[in-house]
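## Example pair
The file below holds two records. Each record gives the amino-acid sequence first, followed by its structure token line.
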Amino acid sequence: MGHQVIRELGSLASAIAGTGLHAAKRMISGLSGEAQAPANPRAGQPSDAFPSPYQTSIDNTFRIPVFLSSANQMNEIQMAFFNRLILEMENALLFPRTLPRTEQYPETTLTSVRRVVYSSYGLLAVDFQRFFVQGIRTNVGEFVPTTPFWEGSAFAQIEPSMAYQYGLPLLLVREIGTDTARGIWERGNSPFIILEWDSTKPLDDFFQIVQWRSAFANWNAHVRNGYYNQTEPPFRYLANNQDQ
């Protein structure tokens, strides 16, 4: 036993002198009986559980930024619809931007909204049920209406209006029964069709209907057309007849 220890110590001294400290450490681990971890063939590669910033950047390639306008406070059903809407937009290679979830500027709210509008190529607004109103007393009449109704967020009126002023392609979706006689969501006020989502039915009942698929495809086409027009160079170096 003593001769074996002497031979091992001699080998250790040779390892330190010849192959270096790392080889000596491996021999010490062997002498102490410690188990050696198997070599990782993927050492230095990013973990699947934590995608690299490069992969995240690739996933966002070709996605056109659009403004997704909605209320900040949602119930579980509204949040499920909102998440499904984001998935539909991402599958169409769009990048939905929301305030204040994806970005917020150190300015007033209206200024932040304007910045998102000016840096987007379309707006999709969702008017969720937000306030249950029993009735309204006006300055010239009786307490109206006779039946309660739902109102959405004030920004469901402001953000689509600012986007329309700027000329962005708009797509409006409201939870059924919300703002039916108020602001831009009242029938006849907006210059486009308003889609209605029934929160009492499964999500697929909305996202599989022809009205949604047709309106979304048409809006997406306008968004991409506007993107290509806005990113054209301001000056062409060739005449039109040479561009053909």
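Second record, same layout:
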Amino acid sequence: MVFQANAWTGAVFAAALCLADWRFAAYAVGGAALGTWTARALGGSRHRREAGLEGFNSALLALCFAVFLGRDRPATALVAAAGCIVVTIGTAAAVRLLSVWNLPPLTLPYCLLAVAVTVAAPAFRRIWPFDAGLAALPDSASGRTALHLNELVPAFFHNVSQLFFLELWYVGALLLAGLLLASRTAGLIACAGSVTGIVTAWALGAPADRIADGTMGYNAVLVALALCGVFLPATPTTLLFALLGAATATALTPTVAALLSPSGGHAFTWPFVLTTFGFLAAVRSFPRLSGADRAPGSVPAAGLRRRTGGRPCRRSARAGSSTGRARERRGDDTEPVTCTVRSSLIHAGRVRAPGPRTPGPK
């Protein structure tokens, strides 16, 4: 969820959920375990399982159902268990489909299934036994927009605790401590994302109560983490880029909520997913952000070879050589060579052009 493959951070997160309600922790931990087990049973990648990439979507989904469908109902536990299995399969599908554009799945599988279930829940009495539905028409903002000083600190921590649907400042503080335990850089970037969410929402005139409860700024925290230090290197340039993305996600949150609320859906982490996808796709046009800008004469990036004229050529390994024997065992008899670099070195006189060898003296 916060891009940290650290067992101690996960333990701190579980403890933070226990502070709110032990059943929340049980749903989250059980969802992560069920998602990881499903991936293992279906022969999923061991590396992805050990890194937690097969369990965070299922953990979020189980926790979401506990919050919205009732954590003390057996039907909720059954729906959560089934949803964890389905979302794990959906994660594998998202990884395959998004790899075409070199994009990560993020929380897209969780968002899709969470919206589907919350929209459909009122149609099934055993899943939603309540009289009131989840659907609501969007309304214009109302209430005061001025933030009081005593609301700033709770808003800062609520932006973190709302990642797990909780409006509890001490839970947010503990979650932030767990993040700092894994990476000081990541923790500071999360703090910067939370501040950006508060400032952006206030500058746009969002109601103060929505800023204070964290529902306007939690997506900003996720976007800041993703775009600085996770999918892009942590540099001053990418930090500014990430904070711009955090502000964009904050402004996008009411849009997504207004689109989904008439059918009973919620924004969840859709603003984070959509903003991160857009900004990561744009990075390919800005090499300074990705660190892919190289000196002249170096190997062009894979996405630029067609434009620059460079293309990978292949040279057969010499039969009988140690390299050739190693490649025969791997089933690969060729060696990639970049023609662009070799031809430039030939023209510069640093490498002799290929041609017939003259016999040496006997």
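Notes on the second record: The chain has 17 helices and two strands. Residues 74-98 form the longest helix (25 residues).
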